[in-house]
Amino acid sequence: MIDMQGVQKTYPNGVQALSGIDVQIDEGEFVYVVGPSGAGKSTFIKMIYREVKPSKGYIRIHKQTLHNMKWKDVPYLRRNIGVVFQDFKLLPRLSVYENVAFALEVIEENPKAIRRRVMEVLDLVGLKNKARFIPDELSGGEQQRVSIARAIVNKPSLLIADEPTGNLDPETSWEIMNILEEINASGTTIIMATHSKDIVNTIKKRVIAIEGGRIVRDESRGEYGYDL
Ligand SMILES: Nc1ncnc2c1ncn2[C@@H]1O[C@H](COP(=O)(O)OP(=O)(O)OP(=O)(O)O)[C@@H](O)[C@H]1O
Known about the structure:
Layout: E1 2-10, E2 16-25, E3 30-34, H1 41-48, E4 56-61, E5 64-65, H2 74-78, E6 81-85, H3 96-105, H4 111-124, H5 140-152, E7 158-162, H6 170-185, E8 189-193, H7 197-202, E9 206-211, E10 214-219
Parallel strand pairs: 3-8, 3-9, 6-7, 7-8
Antiparallel strand pairs: 1-2, 1-4, 4-5, 9-10
Helix pairs in contact: 3-4, 3-5, 4-5, 5-6
This protein binds adenosine-5'-triphosphate.
């Protein structure tokens, strides 16, 4: 599903964030991306949904090659990729329902299908009864559940999560992990950058460790491997 070869990224200010990434990720995998702060995890993740363009190397996601992708084709790539962020990034003036429906409205689904699908994903994340609330009226964990619902509403085959539990307390983090595991069990590939030793060492998955812009470890059912 994902193939990267010789991928490098040098930002315009001269910082080399990634210096030679070779990796394959198969459909249906659940992968943690770990490593010290500044190692290149976010850069790696942002390249997958073409938020960041590689300076060198080959990237293929599904059947689309990204290194030579034109800007006009990026929305088509992103339709098949859901993204969840540490800080949720919900639209503050829209209700829970509207935040989730928005992603379908931009691809012109019919209103009945939108309603059915939005309620289905809100049910999946346990927030059907809060559809009319606005983000400020929700706890952090609930806001993250809305952002997960938004990310999966158009059934992407790949879900990217950049420190999804970074702003949440431990108990809420486990709830979020349960939801992500459920989504993975239904066939969606998940790639999650995290600093949570507890999560990585408890819910065992493939671990890719990045240090200084390179993959230094890639293990199935791996350990977190750092003290913090
Ligand atoms: N837009 C940018 N312009 C210039 N340099 C950047 C940019 N984004 C990231 N960097 C630099 O690239 C390197 C890798 O950053 P990145 O955000 O990928 O690391 P990270 O492993 O995700 O870190 P953290 O765990 O702290 O989020 C760092 O040295 C960072 O300062």
